[in-house]
Each structure stands twice: as structure tokens, then as C-alpha cells.
Amino acid sequence: MAFVEWSEELSVGITQVDQEHQKLVAIVNQLDEAMISGKGTRIMNEILTQLVEYTKIHFTAEEALMAEAEYPGLDLHKQQHRQLVRKVEKFHSDFNNSGRRITRKMMDFLKYWLSNHILVDDMAFGKYRVECPT
Ligand SMILES: [Fe+2]
Ligand SMILES: [Fe+2]
Questions:
Q1: Each residue's pLDDT tens digit, 48-96
Q2: d(C-alpha 97, C-alpha 91), whole Å
Q3: Of the ranges 9-13, 35-39, 43-47, which one carries the lowest mean pLDDT score?
Q4: Residue 10 alpha carbon to ligand 2 centre in Å
């Protein structure tokens, strides 16, 4: 079973955003699989680099959609994104500074980080788009 299961519950109703979220979920699942199967630290490091990079790509794209829709929550959402980027970067540096080990606690943090932001903050934007289409 995948570590984070994609379900309709996670859909914010915007195809592009959902596809990008699915890709983030896939990267987190890849990391979990790599951890379980005892993959080498080089591979784990590569997946983490990908996670940090793709997170930034997704956040930039999502903020552009919000700006386009004149979403009133944009400034706050940008702050949340910046915090999340800092957290995932710290996750990556902790990995490199701790003998390159990933613990279950670190994975649980990532799972929470991803699903909570989608379910609460991105969902609010999805609802706004439906209610106030531009
Ligand atoms: Fe977001
Ligand atoms: Fe998002």
C-alpha cells in the first residue's frame, strides 16, 4: 500500500493543481518505498532533491493561478508556502546531517505536511474558484 493514498477527497477541483499534487504524493511515496526497501543514500538524496524542487515548481504555479483568480487569500497562502519550503528544505538538510537516515517520524511529518496543506489551504482556494470564477 502506498504511504499516501490519493483519493477524491484530496481533489481541489482544479485539474492542473490536482495533477501537480498527485506528482508530489508520488514523490513522497517513492521516498517511503526507498526507505522501506533500504535503498542507498544517493538515491534517497536524489528523491529528496526532487521533492524540494518540485515543491517550489508547484507552489509557483499555484500562486500564479491564485493571482490570476484574484484570490484574496494569496498573501497568506504565499507565506504558508514559504514556511513549507523551509520545512522541506530542513528535512533535506537533516537527512544529510544525520548520517543520511530517514526515520518514520520524518516520514509522518511529510505526510502530514502534504495532506494537511492540500486538505485545508489549497481546498479553500478550490472552493473560491468554484464560487467566484473569473
Ligand atoms: Fe498551496
Ligand atoms: Fe498545492
A1: 999 999 999 999 999 999 999 999 999 999 999 999 999 999 999 989 9
A2: 10
A3: 35-39
A4: 10
Q: Are 91 and 28 in contact (CB under 8 A)?
A: no
> Could you give the domains of the chain?
13-131 (1.20.120.50)
How much distance in Å is there from the Cα of 1 to the middle of ligand 1?
Answer: 26
pTM over 0.90: yes
Neighbouring residues of the ion ligand 2, judged by CB less than 5 Å: 62, 122
Distance CA 63, CA 26 (A): 21
Ligand nearest to the CA of 115: 2
Residue with cell 485539474: 15
Q: Which ligand lies nearest to the CA atom of residue 82 in the structure?
A: 1
Spacing, Cα 9 to ligand 1 middle (Å): 16
Q: What is the distance in A from the centroid of ligand 2 to the CA of 21? A: 6
Q: CA of 117: how far to CAs of 41, 77, 103, 134, in Å?
A: 28, 10, 22, 24
**Residue whose C-alpha cell is 524540494:** 52
**473560491: which residue's cell?**
128
